[in-house]
Design a protein that fits this description.
The protein has about 375 residues and is of the alpha/beta class. The chain has 11 helices and 19 strands. The longest helix is centred in the N-terminal third of the chain and has 17 residues, at about 110-125. It is globular, with a radius of gyration of 26 Å.
Length: about 375
């Protein structure tokens, strides 16, 4: 047993973390004894082979088999509760996405017409999925939200913004992730994203789950909860361009939501968002790439264009990130329409390259999808 432990340490299978690059002798003496399960010391199964000279020699059974045995003891399927769903076959493997980074003004009618024109231009360039920014029909302010809010469920004249999205998605036969607008429902206001299918039907609504309440002294203070109510439901929707998980801006910061979407079989996460000039330069791209690489799927974000004269100044930089964390397309802060290709075969490839789903430690940690669990 001592020999086994000595061999383990010398072969670098044990990594010692210390503040200094060189461990002193006294530090080594203070190390606690290894605490390893009894099964660790069980000899590997062996088989006898004959070499060219007729002598018998022992050889270890492949490390691949041993790894699979160890992986099963880690219970990776239990790391998600309920267990993760298999990635569904998408309706198509490749398609173009359009991210419309729009300027927003106090003129609501102009904003609606401007968004429609951008959607039409993206579709002309081949986009089968078009994404709009967060709060694209209204200035981003607590004073504006109640004034510009629409009753999405009533539709028609009660919601001219979503009526336009429904019509244009049907006419162009595209899927639209309609950014977000202030929504009025009874006596409450929400920051809401509407998703329309290529038939013009409203397929889902996502009400921003995590409200943007922050205070960075001398930089930015914004309290969305002064006027808005937080949504209560994660939103994942099957569309003509695959299974999409939806978040809005501040939702991007919460990895648990993205993990739930991945466990529900999402191919793509879409986050309409308006990061600001303080957090944007530091966190916007970082968070997108983190959500993509952690969950091995595509992440698309769409921001308003920057208006330095506005009360809230957006960072811009709408972006598409691939399942390996690579930035596939982005822009600066001006108005722009980004057209980029999504290839879902890369999701399977990266999950084969790095089989994280099979390597999770369900014996040590779990992520619980409360909504799915309660629905079973």
């Amino acid at each position: 047993m001592k020999a086994a432990i000595s061999s383990l340490i010398s072969s670098n299978n044990l990594t010692l973390h210390h503040s200094s690059s060189i461990l002193s002798r006294s530090s080594l003496l203070r190390l606690r004894p290894l605490s390893l399960p009894p099964s660790f010391f069980t000899p590997l199964p062996t088989k006898l082979n004959t070499n060219p000279f007729g002598f018998y020699q022992k050889s270890q059974i492949s490390s691949t088999n041993f790894s699979s045995v160890m992986a099963s003891s880690y219970k990776p399927e239990q790391a998600r509760v309920p267990p993760a769903l298999p990635l569904p076959a998408p309706p198509l493997t490749k398609f173009k996405i359009g991210l419309c980074q729009l300027s927003v003004t106090p003129d609501k009618e102009r904003n609606i017409a401007h968004a429609r024109k951008a959607i039409e231009e993206a579709a002309e360039k081949g986009a089968k999925l078009v994404v709009l920014p967060e709060i694209w029909n209204s200035p981003y302010s607590n004073d504006s939200f109640p004034v510009y809010a629409e009753d999405i469920d009533a539709g028609g004249d009660a919601s001219p913004s979503t009526a336009m999205l429904s019509e244009v998605s049907r006419l162009l036969k595209i899927t639209i992730v309609g950014g977000s607008i202030p929504e009025r429902s009874g006596d409450r206001l929400y920051n809401t994203c509407s998703i329309f299918g290529s038939d013009g039907e409203l397929k889902a609504k996502h009400r921003k789950i995590h409200l943007f309440d922050i205070d960075i002294p001398g930089k930015i203070t914004f309290i969305e909860s002064k006027t808005l109510t937080a949504g209560q439901t994660p939103t994942i929707v099957d569309t003509d361009v695959g299974r999409i998980g939806i978040g809005i801006c501040y939702d991007l910061r919460f990895q648990e939501l993205a993990m739930i979407y991945a466990a529900r079989g999402a191919h793509l996460l879409c986050y309409p968002g308006a990061f600001n000039m303080t957090t944007g330069p530091l966190h916007w791209e970082l968070l997108q790439r983190a959500r993509a690489v952690d969950n091995q799927l595509y992440v698309a974000t769409c921001s308003p264009a920057r208006d330095t004269g506005a009360g809230y100044v957006a960072w811009g930089h709408s972006t598409l990130v691939g399942p390996f964390g690579e930035v596939l397309a982005t822009t600066e802060h001006e108005e722009a329409i980004i057209i980029a290709e999504i290839d879902y075969s890369l999701v399977e490839l990266r999950r084969t390259n790095l089989p994280l789903q099979k390597q999770r430690r369900g014996d040590l940690y779990q992520l619980v999808d409360v909504q799915r669990l309660n629905s079973e």
